[in-house]
Design a protein that fits this description.
Layout (H helix, E strand, L loop, with lengths): L1 H5 L1 E6 L7 H11 L3 E6 L6 H8 L4 E3 L7 H6 L5 E3 L9 H6 L4 E2 L6 H16 L2 H9 L15 E5 L3 H12 L3 E5 L13 E3 L2 H7 L2 E4 L17 H8 L5 E4 L8 H9 L5 E4 L19 E3 L8 H19 L16
Parallel strand pairs: 1-2, 1-3, 3-4, 4-5, 6-7, 6-9, 7-8, 9-10, 10-11, 11-12
Helix pairs in contact: 2-12, 6-8, 9-10
Length: 335
Amino acid sequence: METEMSRTLKVLLCSDDDGLMVKTIKNALSNKGFEANIVLVRDQHDADTISKEIVDADVVYPDKAIITKEMIESAKKTRLFQFGTGYDTIDLASAGERKIPVCNMPGITAQSVAEHAMYLVLALARNDREYGLEMKEGRWNRGVGVELAGKTLGLIGFGNIGKIKARIAHGIGMKTVAFRRNKEKGNEGLNFVDIVGFDHLLEKSDIVSILLPLIEHGSYRTKGIIGKRELEKIGGAGLGWLINISRGPIVNEKDLIESLKSNIIRKAALDVYEMEPLPENSELRKLPNVILTPHIAGETREALVRRYTLIAENTIKVMNNERPLYIVKELQSIF
């Protein structure tokens, strides 16, 4: 009986079930002899319910929910905070003090995110938003698009997603430049990519694509690095298009809206926003030169199965007192 009890665990998922999540996690845990009590908190802004359920949770998947110091201190049984790619919504210092590993999933959604980012480039080039609306209204307006071959794509960030997007862009004949803080790493064998300085990229790219994690403090801070000055540089070069599939606060949204209104930035495509869900009255919804998607870049069946499988695998590891995969860099020295 004691053995059976030790194989039962509570997994708190701050997310709605998409038909794959609970099934994939439960099956993977069951295959290893664990009986999972899976609790869903579908509203990621429901701090009261999260605070209540976290108290006796063995593993927590916050997704995009905010996990405060108080929540962490009350999480007496928790052995793991498992995030997706970004982990900017948890108090890392408190997790470190409690010696609870915080893990993410580097590269797990990279292919899907890169494909979505490239879809947005193609959608801008072929006036997808305008044609889609007009055709549904019964109109037949054959406008003019943009050929992407020969255009310069600037990647701010050159990690897993950046490298995949660079390959796709190269395949359709685009020139690619990239900015990365660690220039010594170079282009890692992708000889068709030039690693350049930040301002050089902004001034020479037709299309700028943001591929960075959100870092709010310190010398590697990325919050707000794209503001009025940077938008003017982007707008002064080539097509003047901006793509953001990383995190909303990396771009000053107020400055972006003003630059779109004044046509400094001619077009933008966004999957992420300063506030999510994007408020119904957001000015972004009203602008004709923006394509918006609801933070779905990594939401493909293949990427989701990989994500949920890793949640289960890391759960098994911590329940067996093993080191989980992909502890975030800020906490690696503790474990």
